[in-house]
Amino acid sequence: MILIADSGSTKCDWILYNNDRANPVKIRTKGLNPAILSKKQLKNTITKNEDLFNHKDLVTSVHFFGAGCGTKKNQQKVNNILTKFFKNAQTSTQEDIMAAVYATTSTPAVVCILGTGSNCCYFDGKTTHLKSPALGYILMDEGSGNYFGKELLKIYYYNQMPEVLRITFENDYNLKEKEVIKQLYKSSTPNRYLAEFARFMFEHESHPFIKRMITDGMDKFIDNNIMQYADELKTAPLHFVGSIAYFAQSHIQNALNKKGLKASHFIRRPIDNIISNIVNEPV
After folding, report:
1. Is 184 part of a structural domain of the chain?
2. Contact predicate 115/244, CB 8 Å
3. How far apart are CA 67 and CA 8, in angstroms?
4. Which end of the chain has fewer CB atoms at under 10 Å, N or C?
5. Residue 236 domain-assigned?
6. Does residue 107 fall inside a structural domain?
7. Does residue 155 fall inside a structural domain?
8. b/e burial code for range 195-234 (CB count within 10 A of at least 16 → b)
9. Greater model confidence, 132 or 43
């Protein structure tokens, strides 16, 4: 049995199959980002899932793609847990950008992730090339769920949110300062907390204020990330994966049009597309 996992910071999608692509077992757990979670937290999420536990001795190969797995240290952190849990399996841990690549292309392309966090790379047909490091939700991540969460909170607390949106925002979320501070500075997953606010943004995306906020965020992502690959984009297509990319695709296309660019694919969940591309890959 082969097990594939695609993990962001908010959720992790797993797919288990045994030469039967028509009826794979699909599993979802909390996100497993080794950059923000301890070994204990990672281990508990994996080992306490009933579906994973019931199949652990049958799994012979594990391909794990995850946010926060861009360094050897974090890859090893996850891989050690996987190896101990799936005792009969060979395991491989790679950065989530590789899942995005496998989900969209097998030929050269620029591939972007817009989910809880954001990232962008050029795939030359064999390996990925990143022109800037992914430094996470505090410094980077423009256009991501946690980026827009921060923007909404700042606009709200600076009293810049239109009244009609402000009233709804207050009804939808616990915005007491103590609670927000607790989630931002005492929680182990502040980026996941921030990304939860993206739902509000898409529920009100027709409002001019929200529409402008989305456009500004996507302009920043394009300018800071995609345009670094301007030369590659002269011959290579552009693909997007992730929930934010999927729901904001019309806004992204409009922002790309201003640069003379166009996206070829928008895929919400990479896990649904990557089986055929890695089934014959060695672990």
Report:
1. no
2. yes
3. 5
4. C
5. no
6. no
7. no
8. bebbebbeebeeeeebeebbbebbbbbbeebbebbeebbe
9. 43
Q: Which residue has the higher pLDDT, 137 or 71?
A: 71
Distance CA 158, CA 89 (A): 52
Structure letter (DSSP) for residue 233: G
pLDDT digits (tens, 9 = 90+) for 17-40: 876 555 788 899 999 999 989 999
Q: Which residues pair with 111 in a beta bridge?
A: 121, 239
Give the integer Cα–Cα distance in Å for 215 and 254: 8
| Burial bucket for residue 29 (CB in 10 Å: 0-12, 13-18, 19+) | middle
**Which sign does the torsion angle of CA 17, 49, 79, 42 carry?**
positive
Q: How many domains does the chain have?
A: 1
The encoded tokens of residue 248 equal 């904001």
**pLDDT tens string 95-126:** 989 999 999 999 999 999 999 999 999 999 99
Task: Give the domain extent around 34.
Answer: 2-100+271-278
What gap in Å lies between CA 111 and CA 204, rounded to an integer? 28
Joined together, the tokens standing for residue 49 give 């899932």
> Cα–Cα distance between 269 and 15 in angstroms, integer?
12
C-beta separation of 4 from 63 below 8 A: yes
- 256: three-class secondary structure by DSSP: helix
The CATH number of the domain holding residue 39 is 3.30.420.40
pLDDT at 275: 72
